[in-house]
Amino acid sequence: MQLRVKICGITQVEQGQAIAGLGVTSLGFICVPSSPRYISGIDIKKIVGQLPAGVDRIGVFANATLSEIEQTVAIAGLTGVQLHGEESPEFSAQVRQRLPQVELIKALRIKSAADLERTGDYETSVDTFLLDAYDPAHRGGTGKTLNWDMLEDFQPRRSWFLAGGLTPDNVLQALQRVKPNGIDLSSGVERAPGDKDLNRVQALLANLQSLALCIKPSV
Predict the structure, then answer these.
(1) pLDDT tens profile 182-214
(2) Cβ partners under 8 Å of residue 90, min gap 6
(3) Does residue 219 lie within any of the structural domains?
(4) Which domain does 12 fall in, by range?
(5) Annotated catalytic residue, options 8, 31, 56, 184
(6) Are 168 and 203 in contact (CB under 8 A)?
(7) Are 25 and 182 in contact (CB under 8 A)?
(8) Residue 60 maps to a domain
(9) Is 115 in the active site?
């Protein structure tokens, strides 16, 4: 099975196109106005309109209304919605009902092993989980590393992304410890929030290829 590689926090047209061309499977766009990586639906559309076929276009929302999510999905042409706030299982089910054509991802910030049990509350409404490191002040892109020890026996009924402080330098160590279906990086491949470093993305993919993880070749 191909490991999904999601580069999140894309803000620039040229960088989005270049990163997709390197062979990642998914691009993430932060649709949270308070984030330094925020990008509007109209600007997302400018990027996704030039992407290769088959690259996932995932919008990241935090405590947005259902109408705000629907509007952005329609404007930007998103193929996935990531709920990264305190959205309830009931709200997730509403999103699933209103947007049955998109992949629905629920992000959970993991502070203790007990937080992993919350995945069971969302299994009937989401397609995919994303596990991120806990930070009391920020929801993502902090560079904090998740405690991999808690995840060594994690086997949810849905596919899942590992996030939280991943970099080209530590990703192989992480994947030797845990077995996610995908990885999600943001600050680990940046020069500054929203400004991606293509050399670091290339280094990431080269390291993954060394593990024969079936990453798509560069084009």
Answers:
(1) 999 999 999 999 999 999 999 999 999 987 654
(2) none
(3) no
(4) 4-210
(5) 8
(6) yes
(7) yes
(8) yes
(9) no
Among 121, 132, 195, 214, the one annotated catalytic: 132
In a domain, 216, yes or no: no
For residue 152, is it within any domain? Answer: yes
Q: What confidence tens digit (pLDDT) does each residue in 14-66 have?
A: 999 999 999 999 999 999 999 999 999 999 999 998 898 899 999 999 999 99
Task: Quick: pLDDT tens for 59-84.
Answer: 999 999 999 999 999 999 999 999 99
Q: Catalytic site residue 31?
A: no
Tally of domains in the chain: 1
Q: Residue 104: give its domain's CATH number.
A: 3.20.20.70
Place of tokens 């040229």: 14
φ, ψ of residue 24 to 5 degrees: the values are: -70, 160
48 and 76 Cβ atoms separated by less than 8 Å: yes
Q: Has residue 140 got a pLDDT over 80?
A: no
